[in-house]
Design a protein that fits this description.
Elements (H helix, E strand, L loop, with lengths): L2 H10 L23 H14 L14 H17 L7 H11 L5 H10 L25 E4 L13 E7 L3 H4 L4 H15 L3 H13 L2 E5 L5 E11 L2 E2 L8 H12 L4 E8 L5 E7 L2 E2 H7 L4 E2 L7 H13 L12 H9 L3
Parallel strand pairs: 4-7
Antiparallel strand pairs: 1-6, 2-4, 3-4, 5-9, 6-7, 7-8
Helix pairs in contact: 1-2, 2-3, 7-8, 10-11
Protein name: Staphylococcal-like nuclease CAN2
Length: 336
């Protein structure tokens, strides 16, 4: 985690004490304890001091020794998560998975203490990530972390794949490689005007130099992806923004596994997406953020997930008669 972070969290982000607990509501939830950041702070602090929050005992049944065991396991799981949880749902899933063999009441008490979703409120995800390539897959990609700005709606995403990837390395045009080298040299000489011009040349060729969180720069190839088998509302349709935001929440900052089955008429790769082992299309359908696009994909499980969302009236199905996006697009093309 790094000594600097250990020092920062040790000084500024100590777990709650008895004196802090006066403002706590039911299950220990307050402005200080709600959410992912509070759990992260307490895990960092536990690594330094081996102490768990004092007031947690009020909300769980097991001993302090058992609590310390939870935090030790959670701290290890948090470190191993790539990237670590960023949303309340991701943090809740990590807690539930890590403490799956512990008492249900303790797990739920811990989740409630941090204001995280309880198990029964989470969308169950049933599809395991395939260990071998399914029939029909043309090729597979592992992407760099996804930028939220590259997600225009709930079924389309732009991703980048490192040019150092074995599948990509032999295909990078020579002029792109040369432009990347010259750009790096121009930046080192603080000739930013030339560097920007060279980067634009790289972009025009379908590549980009990506800045990673560790400040490393990577030459990467651009791919536009159309999620296979689903059709989400267009961004200007009712529930379009909500569908877009849900897809952002699932994939932002994550590296994706992309299984490409073909290309559509717009030059996009039609693909299944997996994010930290979760099948993205399954989540979008179960949360009522998309239709099963049965005209192009007859998988029965997709139809089943849409039917479940309809029955629960979640997401776009809360409306009595939501307009199908393919009909909406047809009306726009015909000028209606």
């Amino acid at each position: 985690m790094g000594n600097a972070l250990r020092f920062l969290y040790g000084k500024c982000c100590k777990p709650l004490t008895e004196e802090d607990s006066g403002s706590l509501g039911p299950h220990g939830v307050s402005a200080a304890t709600v959410g992912v950041s509070a759990l992260a702070q307490d895990l960092y602090h536990f690594e330094i001091t081996s102490q768990v929050p004092e007031v947690l005992t009020r909300h769980v049944t097991s001993s302090k020794k058992a609590q310390a065991n939870w935090y030790r396991k959670l701290s290890e799981a948090w470190r191993e998560a790539k990237p670590p949880p960023k949303t309340a749902e991701e943090a809740a899933r990590l807690v539930i998975q890590t403490l799956s063999r512990h008492k249900k009441a303790d797990v739920e008490g811990l989740l409630a203490f941090y204001g995280l979703p309880l198990p029964h409120t989470l969308i169950p995800v049933s599809t395991a990530e395939p260990t071998t390539l399914p029939a029909g897959v043309k090729f597979e990609m592992q992407t760099l972390p996804v930028d939220a700005r590259a997600i225009p709606d709930g079924d389309t995403i732009t991703v980048y794949v490192s040019a150092a990837d074995p599948r990509e390395s032999a295909c990078v045009p020579g002029d792109v490689q040369m432009a990347a080298v010259r750009r790096s040299k121009a930046r080192a000489e603080r000739n930013y005007e030339q560097a920007d011009a060279l980067h634009q040349k790289i972009i025009n060729a379908g590549y980009r130099v990506i800045n990673l969180p560790n400040n490393e720069e990577v030459l990467a190839r651009k791919y536009r992806i159309r999620l296979r088998g689903i059709d989400a509302p267009e961004s200007s349709m009712p529930y379009g923004k909500e569908a877009q935001n849900e897809l952002i929440k699932i994939v932002q900052g994550k590296c994706l596994r992309v299984l490409v089955y073909g290309e559509d008429r717009y030059g996009r790769c039609v693909a299944d997406l997996y994010c930290n082992g979760i099948f993205v299309q399954e989540v979008m359908l179960k949360k009522g953020c998309a239709w099963h696009y049965s005209a192009y994909d007859q998988r029965s499980e997709l139809a089943k997930w849409e039917k479940e969302a309809r029955a629960k009236r979640v997401g776009l199905w809360a409306a009595s008669n939501p307009e199908e996006p393919w009909e909406w697009r047809k009306d726009r093309r015909e000028g209606r």
